[in-house]
Design a protein that fits this description.
Keywords: DNA-binding, Transcription, Transcription regulation. This protein is α+β, with helices and mostly antiparallel strands. Among the domains are: 20-51; 55-133, ACT-like. Chain A, domain 2 (Alpha-Beta Plaits). It has 5 helices and 4 strands, in the order H-H-E-H-E-E-H-E-H. It has helices at residues 15-28, 33-51, 71-81, 109-120, 141-160, and strands at residues 55-65, 86-93, 98-108, 125-133. It has a 4-stranded antiparallel β-sheet with strand order 2-3-1-4.
Length: 161
């Protein structure tokens, strides 16, 4: 991947803000103030994209209690209902009762937020969090091949008519 071109800017901030920024840089382990500021700017830009209902990729993290009746079946059914958006999931048994599930999602940000609320609302879910990113996964080759085959079949059907 090509190295990004960097541009220098100058900003003026109150001394107290700079002091707080320096504390954040140290606490969070940033290499520099610049890295911390870029991280904050990117966070804000991602939030703007989510508000604009852009296509985004995200992770949905759930912590739930396996003892609730049919909770695994309910979560699996929700994933099935949203096959186009739920790309993958990983489930880990944390202890006797708690399960951590992480799902990889892609779609319109409003859709993903709505889907995440459905997962969190399932009885037995202790915590849930959706983290959106300003990225899009490349189409899966398998999906592209299936789509091409479907288009070819449709063209053949039309030619027969």
């Amino acid at each position: 991947m090509a190295k990004q071109k960097l541009t220098r800017i100058s900003i003026t901030v109150p001394e107290e803000t700079l002091s707080l920024l320096d504390q954040l840089v140290e606490q969070q382990g940033f290499d520099s103030r610049s890295k911390a500021l870029v991280d904050m700017i990117n966070y804000r830009l991602i939030a703007e994209q989510a508000t604009a209902n852009a296509v985004m990729v995200g992770t949905m993290t759930l912590l739930y209690d396996r003892n609730f009746a049919n909770i695994r079946a309910q979560l699996a059914e929700l994933q099935h209902q949203h096959l186009e958006q739920v790309i993958s999931s990983l489930t880990v048994q944390l202890d006797q009762d708690k399960i951590l599930e992480v799902m990889l999602l892609q779609g319109m940000s409003n859709e993903l937020q709505c889907i995440s609320q459905q997962f969190v609302a399932v009885k037995g879910v202790i915590k849930g969090h959706l983290e959106l990113m300003d990225a899009v996964m490349p189409p899966l080759q398998q999906n592209e091949q299936e789509q091409n085959e479907q288009e070819q079949n449709a063209q053949e059907q039309n030619a027969l008519k």
